């Protein structure tokens, strides 16, 4: 895997993935940024959310469950002093589908958290990672 990050101006950086996608990151105004994009640490948190959501949807689909939507709401706390690593991350999953059993959704989330989600497992080296979920039934 490769990536490239180029300083644009001020505290703005253009990140390009090896797969050809780009995202602009920027610092907070109080740090000299112009708030033009997410902060780098926000990107890490969003990446973890994307990684685990991908896993959960894939696991449910492979099990032939009728999953229609998956939203992960993340809240994180960081250390007060440098390096300001994540110390706590909570993930709340809202999984929507038809006939989804809570125990099946819980198993998919647990598999992601304990076995498949590289981002979450890596962040768990410094942060306490917790999760809960709700299942929304569609007609």
Write structural notes for this entry.
This protein is an alpha+beta fold and 139 residues long. Helix content is 32%, strand content 39%. It contains 3 helices and 6 strands, in the order E-E-E-H-E-E-H-H-E. The chain has helices spanning 40-62, 102-116, 118-123; strands spanning 3-9, 12-17, 22-26, 66-78, 86-98, 128-137. The protein has a 3-stranded antiparallel beta sheet with strand order 1-2-3, with no helix packed on it. A 3-stranded mixed beta sheet has the order 4-5-6, with helices on one face. Helix 1 packs across helix 2. The longest helix is centred in the middle third of the chain and has 23 residues, at 40-62. It is elongated, with a radius of gyration of 17 Å. The mean pLDDT is 97.
């Amino acid at each position: 895997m490769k990536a490239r990050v180029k300083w644009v101006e001020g505290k703005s950086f253009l990140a390009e993935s090896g797969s050809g996608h780009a995202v602009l990151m920027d610092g907070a105004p109080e740090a000299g940024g112009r708030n033009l994009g997410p902060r780098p640490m926000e990107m890490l948190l969003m990446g973890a959310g994307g990684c685990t959501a991908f896993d959960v949807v894939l696991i449910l689909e492979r099990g032939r469950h009728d999953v229609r939507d998956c939203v992960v709401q993340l809240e994180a706390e960081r250390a007060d002093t440098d390096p300001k690593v994540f110390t706590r991350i909570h993930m709340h999953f809202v999984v929507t589908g038809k006939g989804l059993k809570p125990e099946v959704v819980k198993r998919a989330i647990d598999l992601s958290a304990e076995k498949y989600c590289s981002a979450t497992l890596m962040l768990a080296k410094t942060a306490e990672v917790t999760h809960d979920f709700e299942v929304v039934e569609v007609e």
